[in-house]
Amino acid sequence: MGKIRVLPEVVASQVAAGEVVERPASVVKELMENSLDAGARQIEVEVRGAGTSLLRVTDDGAGMDREDALMALERHATSKIGTAADLAAVLTMGFRGEALPSIASVSEFSLRTKTADAPAGTEAVVRGGKLVAVRDVGCSTGTTIEVKSLFFNVPARRKFLRSSATEISHLDRAVETVALAFPSVAWHYLRDGRTVWRLTSVPSAEARVAELYGVEARRELLEISEAEADGIRVAGLVSRPGVTRADRSRQFFFINGRAVESGFLAAGIREAYRQMLEPGRHPSVFLYLAMDPRAVDCNVHPAKREVRFRNGAMVREAVRRAVEGALREARAEWLRPARPHIVSRIETPGEVTVVSRPAVSAGHQPELPRASAPEARPAEMVVPLSPPPLSSSSAPRSGIGEFRLIGPLSRRYLLLEGTEGLVMLDQRAARQRILFERLQSGVDGGAVASQRLLSPEVLELGPREHEVVAANLPVLVSSGFAVEIFGGRSLKVEALPDFLAGRDPRRVLEDFAAECLEGSASRARGALADDAVRRAVARLAMEPEGVTDEREQRALVTQLLNCELPYCDPEGRPVMLQFSWRELDRKFGRG
């Protein structure tokens, strides 16, 4: 008897603080969200000593009278919900009523607040969870909360904080995230007495992104045309293909204004960017979703970071469609009936190839044009390709410059000159993209030309190699192979794709099997065939360094521009890089 007892209120508050107050950034997040719920239009955040010495948040919101100010320091006291049913439709940032008492229990805490019609404000001072003073104070309408000596009475928690640099990084991220969620609110963020950001009230997320990261970074982003499906409205900005980062630090997801983390949202992004991302690279994402609050549960974690969806697959699909739509619209821009030219470096009459895709961004990926009609291809063409002819009836538009083929660089690259700057093209990556899309068209029901062997070959593969080839025969056949099972582990090979003419059939199939076996354990059977084709293309395209014949070079560019995704190879690496005249002038000190 007597082993179970009720914890003292101070201890219970410190236990709750362990869930809500993980680090200084958690405190700042909770205080900023309270300011937003109070209707603030200007918020100032000041931190000192990586947040352990001082955290101060000042807003011009509605403020509180003395009764409400004292009630706000009680656990589970909130103005945002009243019944259990209200939890099903939460639209405010906060609602649990735990943040302020939890913060006050592990710090030296003071709150100054005033409503617009009050003659004086109220100041409440709390030390380690104990209210030590309440008095009238002169202050502006709104609320200021100061948190000093965070975790002074919980030394074990303080020891678990990371380095100052790490904690400052988390503080910056917290302010950055909330500022992106509410672009209409003005923000002033100070760290150790110095201004980090002074952000004005702006009308859109696009303007806030430009404020935070600069105009050039904004130009590298595509705008998602706001669309609604199944009650889910999606808007925001995503990276252009080929403009990626080594980390996910510029990926932000917001649902009804709340910054959240969800595997469903991340999965939707990955599916939309399939084949466009180099391994280890990530797009920038600023995604804003609006949906019925009853369809999302934000009461999963005290910090309200994680959410659960009533139908996660539907949310993932909405994200995928919206992002794919933005990428598709960008490509449609490239396909506008503008007609720049790819011009021979020896500009003789009749040596001009007319093409029809305008160039991509002033960033890193050029918007090279797409061929309006395939030119006559010589027998020695570097990559066999038979793209469907496109209309060439449109006349060239004025104001669109020409791309002039300057020539090869180190047998790997081609250099082009355009009105916007210089474009460098990776020949090997271009061949990989061309071959991959040609094989993909075969997988999807198209036709890939074959080259018959002088006489059929019967060969025997190892057990694993034979199993892989047998499991992927439909893919091989649609890709130009003529292979059939010949009993046991034997295979009969009658033809290879025309771009493999002259190769040893055994070596080709063994390499194909090796590419398929690499990493196959982690992939579903349906995705394995596509990956195998992609890897085979990457391998086969890497043998020759490049071509020096001008007709073949121009043919390679024309074929590349017929591709669906000419700006990246099948692994997501860039095929083309642009160096604008402005960038070159800056490097040479010309403005």
Q: What's the domain count? A: 4
Termini Cα gap: 83 Å
Strand order of the largest sheet: 5-4-3-6-2-1-7-8
Global Rg: 31 Å
Looking at CATH, the homologous superfamily of the largest domain is Histidine kinase-like ATPase, C-terminal domain
Count of helices? 17
Helix-and-strand structural type: alpha+beta
Q: Determine the fraction of residues in helical runs and give it as a percent range.
A: 25-40%
Largest sheet: 8 strands, mixed
- Kindly state the number of beta strands: 24
| CATH fold name of the largest domain | Heat Shock Protein 90
Provide structural commentary:
With 591 residues, the chain is of the alpha+beta class. The chain has four domains: 9-199, Histidine kinase-like ATPase, C-terminal domain (Heat Shock Protein 90, 2-Layer Sandwich); 205-334, Ribosomal Protein S5, domain 2, CATH 3.30.230.10; 341-431 and 545-587, 2-Layer Sandwich (formyl-coa transferase, domain 3), CATH 3.30.1540; 446-540, 2-Layer Sandwich (Ribosomal Protein S8, Chain: A, domain 1). The termini are far apart. 32% of the residues lie in helices and 24% in strands. Helix 6 packs antiparallel against helix 7 (205-213). A hairpin with a 2-residue loop joins strand 11 and strand 12 (258-259). It has 17 helices and 24 strands. The strands form five sheets. The protein has an eight-stranded mixed β-sheet with strand order 5-4-3-6-2-1-7-8. The chain has a six-stranded mixed β-sheet with strand order 17-16-18-19-20-24.
